[in-house]
């Protein structure tokens, strides 16, 4: 029961902190993230959504709806182009759920699923922006200059934040059982 | 796999795809045409902008603290260098004031009221940056209420950094010159060629490999020296004249070998923009 658990505070707050940290880190570390010609895209929101799915236990967070909400904010506030992230975030939640069915919940499998999520997300993002003419980068440039650095950055995020986030979720879930 | 593309799901996927691309295409077109985004988007962005401060303010504070610490370490050598420049600067400033005064008097004499060099400025802080590799956008904390309008140029400490693309009530989006999309950043610029000839042109692109702005389709045959300063030309009527863009770094030929292509090292660092100035033409 999501409504009664402490996750109903932890999860949305974490989601919105992740959303704004994506922007703030991109600004503060811009010379690192966007050093010519490489582009690293910070995906803390994606990390939070995916890890929340893995750590939620038997509490079902309405992840898809949160993904839609966060997608709307990304569309309006960060990009100013509607209709992309509102579809992509729920799609990634669905993809994670689908993939997770075929793998056991180990650290390596989770990082693998996150890897696939990132590749799909970035690829669709590139393709959509290519179609509507926001970017004209070639596929090769995209793979080398954007996808590879982005994967590197976000897998580092994953390794660094896996245990802190896990302990946050376990704590939130444990205290519920005591009450 | 047979079940994966069942009828209902296929219809759902197609509808979502059509809707998504419709929205994307529509909003891109809308954004180019309209001076302000729809009210609902403005309202949403204003609310999100305020909420953003909860995270952005502490992060920026920490960053500024660390930056000022590293600045402190460089202070001594920097100070020695700067002292030499300061004495020159005082002279330049006085001369500048005298010329500006004279210019004003002469304009009065000729009954010219405002030209493209008369502008006032709006200062703003950068709240955040779009976490995207395709859109090089920053969000600044001034909007319509402070007089910011769409298509105004944006300056940072060093020089020109971009253009306002979307204005909300209390914040606005700025597209940086390093954005490579087709509709981005066509500033009219000029530089002095050899023999006092003025070369006019526009910024036609950005080379992300070398961090250079490209001034293409230059039909003038005048020779250009490396290191020549490039400024906005004021043609077009929105951007004031004389905003510093950068210095010429190399000169090449375009793809057909007919026109010159001038590469410009931008004066501003697009990855280190914290405070910006939005010049507004007086009219």
UniProtKB/TrEMBL annotation, chain A:
InterPro entries: Cell_shape_determining_MreD. It is a multi-pass membrane protein. The keyword Cell membrane applies. Keywords: Cell membrane, Cell shape, Membrane, Transmembrane, Transmembrane helix. It is found in: Cell membrane. GO terms for cellular component: plasma membrane. GO terms for biological process: regulation of cell shape. Belongs to the MreD family. This is Rod shape-determining protein MreD. The chain crosses the membrane at residues 36-55, 67-95, 107-130, 142-163. The keyword Transferase does not apply.
């Amino acid at each position: 029961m999501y409504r009664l658990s402490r996750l109903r505070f932890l999860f949305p707050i974490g989601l919105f902190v992740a959303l704004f940290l994506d922007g703030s880190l991109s600004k503060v570390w811009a010379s690192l993230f966007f050093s010519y010609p490489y582009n690293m895209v910070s995906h803390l929101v994606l990390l939070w959504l995916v890890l929340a799915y893995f750590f939620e236990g038997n509490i079902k967070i309405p992840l898809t709806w949160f993904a839609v909400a966060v997608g709307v904010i990304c569309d309006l506030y960060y990009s100013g182009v509607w209709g992309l992230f509102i579809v992509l975030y729920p799609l990634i939640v669905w993809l994670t759920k689908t993939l997770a069915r075929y793998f056991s919940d180990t650290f390596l499998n989770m990082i693998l699923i996150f890897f696939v999520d990132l590749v799909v997300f970035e690829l669709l993002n590139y393709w959509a922006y290519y179609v509507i003419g926001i970017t004209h980068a070639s596929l090769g440039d995209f793979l080398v200059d954007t996808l590879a650095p982005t994967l590197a950055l976000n897998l580092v995020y994953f390794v660094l934040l896996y245990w802190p986030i896990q302990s946050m979720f376990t704590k939130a879930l444990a205290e519920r059982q005591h009450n | 796999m047979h079940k994966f593309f069942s009828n209902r799901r296929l219809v759902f996927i197609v509808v979502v795809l059509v809707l998504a691309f419709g929205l994307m295409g529509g909003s891109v077109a809308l954004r180019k045409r309209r001076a302000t985004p729809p009210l609902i988007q403005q309202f949403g962005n204003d609310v999100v902008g305020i909420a953003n401060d909860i995270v952005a303010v502490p992060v920026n504070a920490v960053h500024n603290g660390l930056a000022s610490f590293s600045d402190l370490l460089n202070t001594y050598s920097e100070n020695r260098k700067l002292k030499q420049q300061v004495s020159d600067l005082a002279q330049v400033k006085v001369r500048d004031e005298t010329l500006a005064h004279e210019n004003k008097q002469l304009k009065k004499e000729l009954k010219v009221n405002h030209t493209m060099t008369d502008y006032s400025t709006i200062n703003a802080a950068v709240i955040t940056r779009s976490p995207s590799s395709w859109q090089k956008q920053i969000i600044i904390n001034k909007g319509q209420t402070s007089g910011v309008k769409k298509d105004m140029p944006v300056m940072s400490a060093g020089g020109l950094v971009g253009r306002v693309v979307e204005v909300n009530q209390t914040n606005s989006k700025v597209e940086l010159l390093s954005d490579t999309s087709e509709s981005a950043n066509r500033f009219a610029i000029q530089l002095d060629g050899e023999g006092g000839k003025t070369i006019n042109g526009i910024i036609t692109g950005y080379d992300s490999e070398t961090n250079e702005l490209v001034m293409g389709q230059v039909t003038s045959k005048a020779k250009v020296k490396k290191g020549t300063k490039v400024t906005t030309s004021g043609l077009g009527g929105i951007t004031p004249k004389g905003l510093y863009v950068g210095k010429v770094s190399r000169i090449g030929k375009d793809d057909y070998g007919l026109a010159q292509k001038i590469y410009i090292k931008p004066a501003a660092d697009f990855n280190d923009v914290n405070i910006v100035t939005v010049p507004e033409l007086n009219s």
